[in-house]
Amino acid sequence: MADDDGGKFKVRNKKKITERDLKKMAPQQRSKDNAPPSDEQIVEREKHEKLIGQLKAAEARNRLRIMRLRYQSSRAQEIGHLIACQPTALKAVRLQALVPSYPNEKDRGDSLEKLDRERIEALLEDNKGLLINRIN
Predict the structure, then answer these.
(1) Which residue in 5, 41, 110, 131 could disulfide with 126, CB within 3.0 to 4.6 Å?
(2) CB proximity list for 36: less than 8 A, separation 6 or greater
(3) What residue spans define the domains of the chain?
(4) Distance (Å, whole) CA 72 – CA 101
(5) Is the pTM of this model over 0.70?
(6) Dihedral angle of Cα 112, 118, 120, 121, to the nearest 10 degrees
(7) pLDDT per residue over 104-128, tens digit each?
């Protein structure tokens, strides 16, 4: 910045401008010489940025959870359809035992109830195929 006193360059420090001088300046000049943010403003901005980051992370986790649930649901529907389309009940039971609708995250033991277990045993013991042949 050339000044009127001899054309020498005069160094200005933004921190040395008082608030009274800022009020006297025109808006265009004031925008160039903004005072640095105070410590409180810096702390508040950091808190705000941290909160925004936490919210974005929570939204991302929720999107992943929804996608995972949607995938598991469509997979279970497809497997159920494949099981229902088997030509015999025996093949349907075998497919259901081999390909579970939902992935086993932990071993749950026997997932069949007593009546279901008796029905499957009866189907497996049917040597003549009277119970497992389906009518089309």
Answers:
(1) 131
(2) 14, 15
(3) 37-85, 86-101+111-136
(4) 8
(5) no
(6) 130
(7) 666 566 777 888 888 888 888 877 7
